[in-house]
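Title: [Solved] General stress protein 3D structure

Original question kept below for reference.
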Amino acid sequence: MSNENNNNNINSKDFLIGTFIGGFLGAAAALLFAPKSGKELRQDLNHQADNVRTKTGELRDTAVEKGTVIAGVAKERTEQIKKVVSEQSVGLKEKAKSWKEYKKSCDEAVAIEDEELTDTIVEIDQEESTAPVSQLEDEVIEIENIEEKEIQPTNV
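Solution (posted by the thread starter after getting help):
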């Protein structure tokens, strides 16, 4: 589809160029073959040349004005975009810093909890290893008695 648009643009461009060249050549031929004296023909040519210079100058001035306006708008939009990007980058930096601090505090909390858990495990291991064997046997017997009571049917 873009290839078709490209061909249409080229054909339109060629047509416009051909129209301008044909118009210019037709006007020149009309002036040259018009039944006028040399003096009148030179005056007409000078007059037409002045008209072309005037119109060209006007078109140039218009193009310069529009170019200046477009440049001003582009500069203004660029400044607006620059400001928005700057504000957003500051916001993103602050969020990143905040997340980094949050992660650091979470890591510290996890480290503290890990240390406390390790200490608790060590204490339990020490208690178990230092507990007298007779105390452990008493606890086993007590657990067995509780299990037997739960298993025995009750008299109603």
